[in-house]
Structure formats: C-alpha cells, structure tokens
Amino acid sequence: MPHIQLNTPIPGPKSTEIMKRRMEAVSNALGQAMPISVKRAKGSLVEDVDGNVLIDLAGGIGTLGVGHAPDFVVKAIQEQAENLVHMCSIVATYEPYVELCEELNRITPGDFKKKTLLANGGSEAVENAVKFARRYTGRQGVIVFEGAYHGRTNLTMSMTSKYALFKKGFGPFASEIYRVPAPSFYRVPKGMTQEAYLEWCCNNLEHALISHVDGSALAAIVIEPVLGEGGFIPMPEPFLRKIREICTREGAVMIADEIQSGSGRTGKLYAIEHSGVVPDLIISAKSLGGGMPISAVTGRAEIIDAPHTGGVGSTYGGNPVACAAALAAIRHINTPEVLSQAARVERVVREVFEPLKGKVAALGDVRGVGAMMAVEFVKDHDTLEPWSDFVMEVVKRSLQRGVIVIRAGLYTNCIRFLPQLDIPEDQLREALQVVAEVVQQVDQDLGVVRA
C-alpha cells in the first residue's frame, strides 16, 4: 500500500488560504520551497492541513536525521519541560548542558582534551568557532572555499559563497575572509586528470598563503567535509590532509563545519572521519538537536578556553529542552544499527538514479555520501552548463505527486536528498521512484528547449 495519500491537488485549499495569510503577515524576504502548510509529521511522513500525506526527503534541510517527532526525542522534551524550560547558561548551570558537552567531547575525533560551547544554530556556532580561532592565534585571517555555506549573519554571510541568493544587497561584509576554489571531480577542466586537478587545488591553496593572506596572519581554515549548499560535493582526502598540513605548519586552527554533514549523515558521526583527518574544532548543528534548535563547537580545550571569561555567550544557547532533545537524538544516531542505514540510503539512491544517466540527457551526476545525496542537472554534458530551471520544475512536480525535495548547488541545479537516516526502505523507494519518474517527464517536456 502506498504511503503517499493525496486527497486534494497540491497545494490544497486550506494550504492556499494559510499561504495568503503568510503573504500578508510575514516578510517576503523569507523564502519557502514548498507551498504547503503542515499540520503534523511523524518519521518521514508529513500531513498537510488538507489531509494530504507526503514523503519528506528534505528533512528540514538536514535537521531531521532521526525523522519527525521520534518518540525518544518527544519523551525527552516532555520530561525536561516538566522540570526546567529555561534558565540561561550565563546565569546558572543545569545538568543537560554539561551532559551534552561531555557527550560531544567524548564522541568527536581527536585524542586530546576537549571542551564544548553550545549555541542556538549553525551561524552562531560558526561565529563562535572563528572567535575561538582568532583569540587563540591572535590573528584575523580566515580561509574559506567556493561553494561553501556557513550562515547568514554578517560574518558567516561573508564566509558563504553564492552571492545572489545569500549576499545581494547586504554588504558591506566582514573583512579578513579569503576564498579559494574547492575540488569538484564532476567539473575537472578538460585535458586534466583527476590526480592533476587535485594537485592543482592543493597547490592553489598553498598559493593563497602568498596571494591572499600570509601564514603568519592566518587564524583558521574552515571547510565543510562535504559541501552542503554547494551541491553535496565530498572533499577528497588528500585535500583535507593538505588543509591539516597547512594549519599545523602555520599554527592556524583547522575548523570542520559539520553542520549539515555531521550527526551520522554520511554513515559516521562526522563526515571528516572518513578521511582520518582530525580537525582542531568541529561545528555541529542541524540533526544534532533532533528537530530542536541547538549547535555546538567542540575541540581542543586550549582553543575553546582562549577567550576571556564572558567573552562568549548566548541567552538561549544550550537551552535545557534543546539539550535533552540533542542527547536523545545523538545517542540514537550513535549506534551501529542507525549509522549503517546511511549506506543503505546511498545504495538505494544510486540504484534508482544511476541507470537514468543513459536515459535522461539532463542528468549529469549522482554523488554524495550516505544519506547526503544529490543529483545534478546540466544542459550540455560537454560544457556542463547548469540547468536550474529543470530542477525547479522537478521540485514543483514532485511535490504535486506527494514528495518533498529541495534544491542545492552553487548554480541551484541539484536536487538534494536528506532523508531520515533509518527511513523505512519502502517509503524511500516509493518517494525516489516518484522523483525519478518526474525527472524523466521533465526531461521529455523541456528537451526541445535544450535542443
């Protein structure tokens, strides 16, 4: 029996009415990928206000690795809320904050003494990580990468790539941010081997210490082990090792932004563990909270302790209810049974979409790691010209057929899959099959435009 149940067209009349109210009451600057209003959700199934049941493959942009409203997270929230909803960690200590920090110190990579600071969301955690690095090193320079996404505050927006969507009209931006290319094996320049291209990327990073910022002024290099908004591009192990080498040599701090790629998303608790590279600081958020707003910076104690007392803080950061949810979520994820499910998700995604490479002219690449997968669409396989309109049409039609997917990529020409790690396989296959059918339909309908 199919899990998708459509009682009305999407969007239905009740969703349409609430959307009208939203237009009147909410800033137009706040985008919305899906024109539906959600009533309830459980696991990977979402019910809108019109009674339609959809399968969610977007997972709150990666925040729902444990799915919607899992019983163990709900129970943890209820029990904590009965005792303490809020206190503020600056005012007094409460055990859930300490317990979560202890857990993160234990599970993050590195055989050194670690400490943690909690905050509300990814942007705040990235800012804290940069603060720690700058205070520890006494330097200001930060190297980031093309295609990166680190947040929407002024500093993190400055660190983020993709100007038109995230930065247009919001300057001036923060200084001392230096951006260099990150390797993408799908876009290796013609005439170069992957090995030569990767060597060029590593050499270019070294060159940045001459052309952009001297090593003596470098506070940190910040890298997503798998680019998120950039299109789910895994960073090759040699490139991560080059970053580690430079940071060690220059006395800079290596920061792994695992906001989207962490919390078991790639089959290990942190994506950087696939490489064996150990960063100095790791940033966690999104699925860490099991749906609740929380983030963390974890790493070398001497770096985390570098600012003066009172130099960092957050009114709601590490809220006790969010801490309780995070503890429940991470303990569920950090089991062989759940972590192994990420590989299953990758296998099924590849089984569905790899065969379409010979059938769908627009399908350029299928990539990712674990339950962090993407498919990229192009107008031409020689020029690799991105085709964002194709993706927009696939997203719209998939929703109309009961599947929630969202876009990604520097050129907004990828569809990303961020399902619940242990999504039932029949639900996963049902949803992916719908998207695959839609992809083939859109390819036929827009093929004449490509020609």
UniProtKB/TrEMBL annotation:
GO terms for molecular function: identical protein binding; pyridoxal phosphate binding; transaminase activity. It holds the Pfam family Aminotran_3. Keywords: Aminotransferase, Pyridoxal phosphate, Transferase. The keyword Chloroplast does not apply. The keyword Transferase applies. CDD domains: OAT_like. Its cofactor is pyridoxal 5'-phosphate. Belongs to the class-III pyridoxal-phosphate-dependent aminotransferase family. This is Aspartate aminotransferase family protein. It comes from Deinococcus cellulosilyticus (strain DSM 18568 / NBRC 106333 / KACC 11606 / 5516J-15).
